[in-house]
Amino acid sequence: MSTIQAAPLKAENVLPSGAWRIVILLCFVGCLNYLDRTMITTMRTSIIQAMPMTDAQFGLLTSVFLWVYGILSPFAGFLADHFNRSRVIIVSLFVWSAVTWLTSYATTFEELLATRVLMGVSEACYIPAAVALIVDYHKTTTRSLASGIHIAGVMVGQSLGFVGGWIAEDYDWSAPFSVFGVIGVAYSFVLLWLLKDAPKSAQTEEKPAEPKVDFFQALRSLFSQGSFILLIIFWSLLGIIGWMVMGWMPTYYKEHFNLSQGMAGLYATGYLYPASIVGVILGGFLSDRFAKGSVNSKFLIPVIGLCIAAPSIFIASNTSLLPLAIGMFMIYGVTRMFSDANLMPILCLTADPRYRATGYGVLNFFACVIGGIGLYAGGVLRDMHVDLGQIFRFAGVLMFVCVGILFLIKKRANAKQPGI
Fold first, then answer.
1. Residue 3, exposed/middle/buried by CB under 10 A (0-12, 13-18, 19+)?
2. Chain mean position to CA 398
3. Do domains 17-207 and 208-420 have the same CATH topology?
């Protein structure tokens, strides 16, 4: 009597125990990460009433965070490559949550500014370590979806920034910082028991048993790869596009359709954020669904997304019909985010596995710095009386440039045929 033996599962289809639990745990951390950093922008009136300051000083509170966060991102990424990733995440969460709680005790502008600097230092350590830990657990068939779900958690935190303004309006400006600071500190102790690095067996194939290297050796390795430099350009251009569209969309709605400030803000964020959350999950799902052992879907899904997002921006910036503009911007929000879900999986194809977190930190640095410059450039163009529709159309052109860069990266990745 013959026996039927089940075929063994492919190695890339076998996930380490707790792989999806790690994603869910980090979704909540990512949500807190962006909520803690952005809620200050929603409580401007309450803060200025308590601590009189100019608009320039209030703007500096956000700018100094972004500068510190961007500059330290490569170093923070290296920490996650050099030390235990899960411990870097836990320490980062504990410190920035403690700083969030400490912010509630600030009484002067200088003290508030100091807490924003500390926030930038501590939060910079989270994202590179988190995305690297996720790809340690997830292989080709689930990597993009896992990355997309985590980014969705981050975006939920970003969209919940209004909660800070709501609590501050009903109670006191310091109340949101106290509440979410305590929640983050408590959650960091929970993660001590639940968050672990991927088992060594899951990393054996991707992480050679080599001695740890220094930061500059990591940079030399990354920048020696032409595909990584192209990825920097790609992600920087997307940073310009993202900041430009998101930063100026409320103004575009207000001026082009003669809306009130409140309604313009609602249309700019109330529709775009949910669409973007759907997009980042859908982009990850499609990429993994059609991977089938090939790396091509990691590139082709973002390419398809950008090829849809670019004409959507063109239509939205040319129409006089408000429902059509909203619909086109929502399509942009969905399809533009296909690239975000696949950024780390693409990085895995271009960088030494030992330097993934460092590489992501470098990408974060350029996206923050160049994206901020793009946002400022939009203001300069506005001062020169350039129509916002033209600025958005320029963003559409940049998306087609990004498509070309992705094809160049794909060509190099296929030539190398790296391990996944």
1. exposed
2. 19
3. yes
pTM for the predicted model, two decimal places: 0.81
Q: Where are the chain's structural domains?
A: 17-207, 208-420
Cα separation, 267 vs 278, whole angstroms = 17
Q: Which CATH architecture best describes the domain 17-207? A: Up-down Bundle (1.20)
> Could you read off the pLDDT tens digit of each residue along the chain, which spans 420 residues?
444 443 444 545 578 888 999 999 999 999 999 888 888 877 877 888 888 888 777 777 877 888 888 889 999 999 999 889 999 999 999 999 999 999 999 999 999 999 999 999 999 999 999 999 999 999 878 888 999 999 999 989 888 877 887 888 788 889 999 999 999 999 999 999 999 998 876 554 454 445 566 788 989 999 998 999 999 999 999 988 887 787 778 878 888 898 886 677 777 777 888 899 999 999 999 988 876 656 677 899 999 999 999 999 999 999 999 999 999 999 999 999 999 999 998 998 888 888 999 999 999 898 887 876 766 676 677 677 778 888 889 899 999 999 999 999 988 877 665 444
CATH assignment, 208-420: 1.20.1250.20
User: d(Cα 170, Cα 184) in Å, to the nearest integer?
Assistant: 22
